[in-house]
Amino acid sequence: MSFAEFRAAADGIRPSAAVILGSGLAGATTHYRPDALASFADVPGLAPSGVPGHAGKVSVGYWSGVPVLVFHGRLHFYEGHSWETITGTVRLASELGVKRIVLTNAAGGIHPDLNPGGVMLIRGHLKWFPFPCEGKGLDAKGEFAIATPYSTQMVESLIDAESALCRSLHSGIYAALTGPCYETPAEIRALKAMGADAVGMSTAMEAEAAAECGLEVLGISCITNKAAGLSKGALNHTEVQVNGARTAKRVGEMIDAVLNSGVVVPRITESSFIGCVGEADFHDGSILMVEQNDELVRVRVRGASGKVYVVGFNNPSGVRANCPENMLLYSLTEMSCPPPMRRFVFANWDDQSQAYLEIEAKSFTVHAE
Fold first, then answer.
1. pTM here?
2. How do residues 296-309 score in pLDDT, each as one tens digit?
3. Distance between CA atoms of 331 and 244, rounded to whole angstroms?
4. Is 194 a residue of the active site?
């Protein structure tokens, strides 16, 4: 597809968010459906990617119903590209109307709690470059940018969402180096002394460019190896790709959560349904019947497996619906809501009618018929 055709498709879809996928994270796109795809080589200002695990393509489509721009891989300084070219992905996202961007990368764990297969949210970064780098350091209003380009609100909300799913989530400082060589043990000791928790060869300049464009930024580091000198054996890119793939499912769920609201929409999972029913069974299921009185809203749902469940929402304070009979479900999510109320949404955002059923209630119960 030519860039002109891609641009026309993107202008029609109007993506509100963007995602840059790092090494080994192609599997994070389970809930993403691309509608148009172009090669970096065909995008003005970009260049072909030459690093394994980076497809070097950009697509636009829907991630759990949200219009999204996805960069399948990125460009690196060690490939010989200028910072202007490297951050061209972010500027393209801004030009297409994106307001939020999720930057993912593969990183080496420096903090003792960050091991291969783990994940770290980026609160801030340090750049250890042997030369000055480009970038005005100004935000979209021409004022000096804040101390960190990363959204504190998005970080805290995602930590809370992961905690609700009984998953711990580390947040810390990402050290950006230029590569292509891995760091020496002595350099890792120096980075640790400077406060770095993880180290990699990307992201920092993209995050700063995004902040300059006025975008809200979330950074996710997938820990693919222990940093040099902190484990036995030499580091290699194959290990990075393999362990990146290990984290892809969780990273995809985290991206899914972020995209489905202004901050976070944690999916209701098997654990929060007290073992009664899991997310997978609701996905592609259908609503059979909705009953409502002053004390209870009962929703009968046929799951993808064919089982029928009754979800009861106690003491509902509000119900909004565009819910035709036998409405197909795309997802069941729990939206952020002021306590003690909780807001639940059955939705099929792929439907052109944008069918949904939204309920505010203090609690819910589920049982299988």
1. 0.68
2. 777 777 766 677 77
3. 26
4. no
